[in-house]
């Protein structure tokens, strides 16, 4: 049993909230829900829509076609006519003039509910249609600020709406409903975050907002400095003083940080940068998605230095990989980039979230002898200590340096220090080499036809793969790139189709770099996510 | 004298007679004199890029040798993690008045409890002599052989308007006076700013001029708690004038206590 609901209206009238309220009710009665929020870069007006897809089997991707469409204005009707099926049930605001065919329920959404409270009206209308008891809706609404007012609106619309079909409570899927951004934030906290320092930028800002709202509960600091250059330098200062520090941004902000990324590499200062991709280049398409910062994230910064790039595909991976990112940064004293994109960051998933604090102790100075910040070691990792430690002078630097951290231009010392950093790169590579979890496998795992993807396309590739007989494969780490593990999964494959959101095919270029030659490609770059129908249609077309 | 060993083995590569030696000496003396109050391990010094930056290699204290214009942010980050750290940033005029100007203004605006000591030699020296934001308009640098087509900024006025709670000017040729300024700046709770007139013997040797024209504010009856008086004194010299009757005030222009950034975060 699977259904999909679209709620459309202007910005500021509770479209996103309606999607989330409905999703929470559905999750509470046992469904797996994937919710995609689509909004342009404006504050009032325009056209927003939320697409709530739910099923008694796990769903991780958006679909185009909707079984139910709620349209608060004419524009929403016009925009979503193409998303309707013959059987689609329409909920229209009374004032809507556009004609639609099929079942239509007209309700006074705009007249009876103001602004964001229209979300409670939409919830009431839909729950009645689904024959879901009122109480299920009220238990979700009770967390809202103006509960009484919302309850009144909700009940009015519940009572005025019509029953369409029964969405029964189901067993099986028990998950938490949370977004990629919330996963990032909670993962950071459970990885020992002390301070989050960020400048606002869509679609990374939800992490900043979430952590700022909960900073007391989490016992962390959250600050917003003057710009991304100031941000990343404060992150490095905090880390030098011993604090686990992280920032989040999108492509343009990350571009500003790259000068200091090299400083992190040279000074071997641990830091975590959450990079949420959006439509690019330049300002691009700020509230939509793309995967065209992949090569930038891998190669940003002048000079050679090791880094780690992790690439989560859904909310739970956001949690797990961000928590790990903090530990990796400190274990290896390197910058770690958590690379997501809008459709991971701002979509909501239903996954079991078992929170656990995992904070590994980094390699620390044992207090004996003279402290050398850049002690030459076999594994390339020098013990850490922090300013304020008696008997230690901690000298970090952007210049090439000797073991003490004093500037050097001596060729032998330069080579020794570069070799140390390269040994660290090798230490990191070996750390990941034997791990099975560097690559995920899904879809029809026995198939010899492979959909090779990364990041936000994972859910859709798994679902399409299962339906049409393709194995879905993706790396979870882009650096160090799990090339051997990937090649094992591709062994004997008759077809390898690369699925990515980049017109130039950045992921495919990366694969080529490691000697992997795909046989086909699906590139989408209208800055919208890959809807399930898109991929099914493409793959079916190939078979004809 | 506490016998704190502040020397490192790094070879000093400043030009003989460089104004930076005066700043280094004044800072070392300040640290020594403060050593009964501040254990050396609690100091962190940071620097940007330029001749001034080398100072962190020459002082045996915790240090963060940053990149051009960014050192103050590194120190602000440290203070948010450990408020016992005494953070002193050595920055240059090209470094912090050009590349890092936004960071300087915001450090002042926030009242971060750090000290910024600007080695203001009014020329880019490590890159061999271009004009900086405080070079006079008649400064004939390598990139502007006829002089820069713009007037210098007045960093004292800028810092007063940005909200700095300790604003001072020193002269690298007056070490005892500079030492006292540095001590006062370090002890000040909040953002402390000292613009140090630091002659560059190679590209812009202003020693003789400063010696002749600098006078001490505290000896002229200036009240550093009076903001308007501070503004007036800041305007007395505009970083361009080089006439025989110029008067260049050094000392504390303004000092006020306000809650710090770290306290408010």
Can you characterise this structure?
The complex is a heterodimer of chains A (544) and B (265). By secondary structure, chain A is of the alpha/beta class. Chain A is 37% helix and 21% strand. Chain A has helices at 15-28, 74-80, 109-112, 118-129, 134-141, 147-160, 180-190, 205-213, 215-218, 228-240, 251-267, 294-299, 315-332, 342-345, 411-433, 458-468, 483-490, 506-513, 532-543; strands at residues 2-11, 32-38, 45-55, 66-71, 84-93, 104-107, 176-179, 195-197, 221-223, 245-249, 271-277, 308-310, 335-341, 348-351, 395-397, 439-443, 449-453, 471-475, 477-479, 495-500, 520-523. In chain A, strand 10 (245-249), helix 11 and strand 11 (271-277) form a beta-alpha-beta unit. In chain A, helix 16 (458-468) crosses helix 19. The mean pLDDT of chain A is 97. The interface between A and B is large, with 45 and 39 residues.
* Gap from first CA to last CA of chain B: 37 Å
Count of runs of 4 or more consecutive helical residues of chain B: 10
Task: Classify the oligomer.
Answer: heterodimer
Biggest chain pair interface: A-B, 45 and 39 residues
- CATH T-level topology of chain B: Rossmann fold
**What would you say the CATH architecture of chain B is?**
3-Layer(aba) Sandwich
Tally of distinct domains of chain B:
1
* Overall helicity of chain B: 25-40%
Mean pLDDT of chain A: 97
What's the shape of chain B? Answer: globular
Unreliable stretches of chain A, pLDDT < 50, 5 or more residues?
none
Our measurement of the CA-to-CA distance between the termini of chain A, rounded to an integer number of angstroms, reads 29 Å
The rough form of chain A would be described as: globular
CATH third-level topology of the largest domain in chain A: Rossmann fold
Helix percentage range of chain A: 25-40%
Q: Determine and state the CATH class of the largest domain in chain A.
A: Alpha Beta
Order of helices and strands of chain B: HEHEHEHHEHEHEHEHEH
Query: Rg of chain B, please?
Result: 17 Å
**Strands ordered across the widest β-sheet of chain B:** 2-1-3-4-6-5-8-7
The unreliable regions of chain B are none
User: Total number of β-strand segments of chain A?
Assistant: 21
């Amino acid at each position: 049993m699977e259904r999909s609901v679209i709620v459309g209206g202007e910005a500021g009238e509770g479209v996103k909230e309606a999607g989330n309220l409905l999703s929470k009710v559905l999750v509470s009665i046992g469904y797996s829900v994937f919710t995609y929020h689509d909004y342009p870069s404006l504050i009032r007006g325009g056209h927003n829509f939320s697409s709530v897809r739910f099923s008694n089997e796990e769903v991780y991707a958006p679909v185009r076609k909707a079984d139910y469409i709620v349209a608060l204005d004419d524009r929403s009707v016009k925009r979503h006519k193409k998303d309707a099926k013959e059987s689609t049930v329409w909920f229209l605001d009374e004032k809507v003039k556009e004609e639609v065919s099929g079942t239509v329920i007209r309700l006074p959404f705009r007249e009876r509910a103001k602004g964001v409270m229209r979300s409670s009206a939409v919830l009431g209308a839909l729950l009645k249609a689904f024959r879901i008891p009122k109480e299920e809706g009220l238990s979700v609404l009770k967390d809202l600020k103006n509960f009484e007012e919302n309850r009144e609106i909700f009940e009015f619309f519940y009572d005025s709406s019509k029953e369409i079909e029964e969405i029964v409570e189901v067993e099986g899927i028990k998950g938490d409903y949370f977004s990629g951004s919330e996963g990032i934030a909670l993962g950071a906290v459970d990885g020992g975050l002390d301070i989050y320092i960020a400048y606002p930028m869509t679609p990374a800002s939800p992490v900043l907002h979430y952590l700022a709202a909960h900073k007391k509960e989490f016992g962390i600091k959250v600050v917003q400095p003057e710009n991304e250059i100031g941000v990343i330098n404060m992150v490095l200062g905090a880390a030098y003083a011993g604090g686990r520090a992280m920032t989040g941004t999108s492509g343009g902000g990350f571009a500003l940080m790259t000068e200091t990324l090299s400083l992190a590499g040279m000074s071997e200062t641990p830091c975590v940068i959450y990079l949420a991709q959006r439509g690019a280049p330049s300002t691009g398409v700020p509230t939509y998605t793309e995967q065209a910062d992949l090569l930038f994230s891998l190669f940003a910064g002048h000079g050679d230095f090791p880094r780690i790039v992790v690439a989560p595909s859904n909310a739970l991976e956001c949690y797990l990989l961000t928590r790990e990112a903090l530990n990796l940064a400190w274990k290896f004293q390197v910058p770690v980039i958590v690379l997501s994109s809008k459709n991971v960051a701002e979509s909501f998933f239903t996954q079991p979230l078992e929170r656990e604090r995992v904070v590994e102790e980094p390699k620390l100075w044992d207090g004996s002898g003279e402290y050398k910040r850049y002690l030459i070691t076999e594994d390339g990792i020098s013990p850490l200590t922090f300013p304020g430690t008696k008997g230690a002078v901690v000298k970090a630097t952007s210049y090439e340096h000797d073991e003490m951290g004093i500037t050097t231009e001596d060729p032998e010392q330069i080579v020794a220090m570069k070799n140390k950093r390269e040994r660290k790169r090798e230490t990191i590579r070996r750390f990941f080499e034997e791990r099975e979890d560097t690559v995920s496998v899904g879809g029809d795992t026995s198939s010899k036809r492979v959909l090779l993807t990364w990041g936000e396309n994972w859910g859709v590739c798994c679902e399409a793969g299962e339906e049409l007989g393709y194995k879905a494969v993706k790396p979870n780490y882009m650096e160090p790139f799990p090339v051997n593990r990937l090649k094992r999964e591709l062994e004997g494959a008759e077809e390898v189709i690369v699925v990515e959101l980049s017109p130039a095919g950045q992921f495919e270029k990366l694969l080529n770099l490691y000697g992997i030659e795909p046989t086909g490609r699906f590139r989408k770059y209208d800055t919208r996510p890959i809807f399930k129908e898109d991929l099914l249609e493409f793959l079916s077309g190939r078979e004809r | 004298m506490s016998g704190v060993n502040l020397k490192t083995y790094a070879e000093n590569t400043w030009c003989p007679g460089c104004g930076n030696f005066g700043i280094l000496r004044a800072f070392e003396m300040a640290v020594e004199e403060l050593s009964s109050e501040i254990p050396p391990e609690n100091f962190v010094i940071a620097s940007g890029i330029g001749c001034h930056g080398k100072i962190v290699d020459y002082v045996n204290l915790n240090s963060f040798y940053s990149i051009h214009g960014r050192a103050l942010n590194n120190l602000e980050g440290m203070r948010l993690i450990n408020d016992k750290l005494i953070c002193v940033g050595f920055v240059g005029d090209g470094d912090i008045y050009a590349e890092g100007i936004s960071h300087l203004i915001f450090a002042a605006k926030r009242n971060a409890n750090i000290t910024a000591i600007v080695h203001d030699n009014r020329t880019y020296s490590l890159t061999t002599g271009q004009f900086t934001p405080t070079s006079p308009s008649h400064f004939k640098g390598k990139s502007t052989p006829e002089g820069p087509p713009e007037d210098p900024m007045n960093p004292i006025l800028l810092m007063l308007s940005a909200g700095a709670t300790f604003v001072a000017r020193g002269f690298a040729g007056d070490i005892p006076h500079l030492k006292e300024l540095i001590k006062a700046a370090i002890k000040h709770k909040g953002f402390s700013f000292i613009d140090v007139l630091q002659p560059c013997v190679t590209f812009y040797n202003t020693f003789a001029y400063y010696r002749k024209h600098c006078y001490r504010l505290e000896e002229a009856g200036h009240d550093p708690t009076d903001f308007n008086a501070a503004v007036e004194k800041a305007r007395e010299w505009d970083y361009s004038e080089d006439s025989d009757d110029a008067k260049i005030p050094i000392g504390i222009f303004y000092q006020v206590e306000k809650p710090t950034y770290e306290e408010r975060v």
